Amino acid sequence: MTEANLKVDGEASHPGTDAPAETGEAVVGRLPRRPWPRALRGRRHLWGVGAVALMTAVLQGALGIQQFKQYYMGAYDLVIFDQAIRNYAHGHMPVSVLKDVHDAAQVIPGYGHTFSILGDHFSPILALAAPLYWIWNSPMVLLIAQALLFGAAVPSVWAFTRRAVRGIAPDRYAVRVAYLVAVSFGISWPLQMASQAGFHEVGFFVLLSAIMIERYQAGHLRVAIACALGLLLVKEDCGYVVAAFGLLLMCNRDRDRRRRVTGAVLALVGVVAAVAIERWWLPAFGARPGYYWYYDQLGPNLPSAVWKIISDPVYAFDIASRPADKVHTLLFLLWPLLFCCLLSPLSVLALPLLLERAFSSKPEHWRTDQHYNAFLAVILTTAAVDGVVRLWALVARLRERRAPAAEPAARTAGRWVLGWSGAVLVCAVLMVFQSPMPLGSVLFPNAWRANAFTVAANRAINQVPSDAGCVEADNDIAPHLSSRTEVLLLDAVPRGCPWVVLQTATVSYPFSGPAVELARAHWLEADGYQLVFSSNQVFVYHHP
């Protein structure tokens, strides 16, 4: 980022206003202290930015609830988080019985305890969602919480954009661009896909990364570093993002020795934390070492993989670019922002996450329909804003070699960036209604109406009493029973639960097809289970 952008520390040049003189230069200053009502009225953009944040939360939350109501969300991963965070809410370890039973291969032999998600991923920040269960005991509370976290990131994206553009253009242009970028971010396809996929820790990453980048730009390094350290509590691989942020501090043009030392320490802390969590923390909670290692084609561990990438870049490039889904997802991340994020140093924050997925052998890491892309939403959006500002700076230097412009350069810059942000918004809107992007469905009433399957499924879950003990349920139906009783995933292995709910209308994980589920139903009948409900290929069995 330019030095002018980094030095902006306030949003007003005169008391009672929030716009500097129309010179395109950043103005340093702070709003004077006022009684709360007057201060609220004085900040005229508070309501506008709040409206965009609320729109983001409402749309993303509506999408999550719609997908839940239509039985599009599975036990993996919504029931896992629901069971774990509900245990947090009751003061227990974040145990997920479903995870413990169905991912037994992940647990160290002889562990001796029910497996908790603290051994699955290092996400203690999820405990912050526990109080929500004191208000509403339903998995849908997590979907709403994630949507609110997405919405809460909007003000930081808006402030970052306005401050960046004010470095080259009049404030009236900066404000317009900030609103267009904020709306584009709020409806961006990575957030859509995360909302469709259910609840994950990504919501906390989106909010913390947004505050971190905006505060870094504003020069408030203490807050930025605090948010960076907070990312360590989101997921174990976030340590590498923290390390990248440390490198960003080290390589800044500002020759501040303290900043460079801080950056070096942060980079070291990020790497050490990531390695220590994977090597010691997760196994301490029962995780089998190397369970999530998807990089055997590069080597058996991280050092060997890094050396393979460095020593044989041609082979590494071949791994990172095949199958074509990897390149397709990368292009989908870049082209809605018109590739401008590639012009900003902020993109270095995205590099660890992109490399982690590109070299992975897990297909879910490559696709566009997963929540992993939302980890990059804030980083790429803010990098694109910084990139287009840098691009204008390059154009302006070239213009200086020619005859003076017929109009002030600041206004030309404003129109330049405004045109870019308008194009980005058009791309984002087109993606909303582009199949298979799901957000557009919340605007159509037909997508909310119950069909024959959802009616039958609703009736089926009402057959299972709250004191059922435990129930084996189809992957798509399990989340609707999770708040009432102990839920296990229906698979080919009998678990001995007195209630079983299955459906043969669609293919459901982990079954390969309806015929397999029918065979499972026949086994239930042969083992003494009684069919107590049958409608539209949804069945409920009970063992007296």
From TrEMBL:
Biased composition (Basic and acidic residues): 1-12
Keyword set includes Nuclease: no
Record protein name field: DUF2079 domain-containing protein
Top-level taxon: Bacteria
Pfam families per the UniProt record, alphabetical: DUF2079 (PF09852)
Keywords per UniProt: Membrane, Transmembrane, Transmembrane helix
TM annotation in the entry: 46-65, 140-161, 173-191, 197-213, 225-249, 261-282, 330-354, 374-395, 416-433
Annotated region described as Disordered, given as residue ranges: 1-26
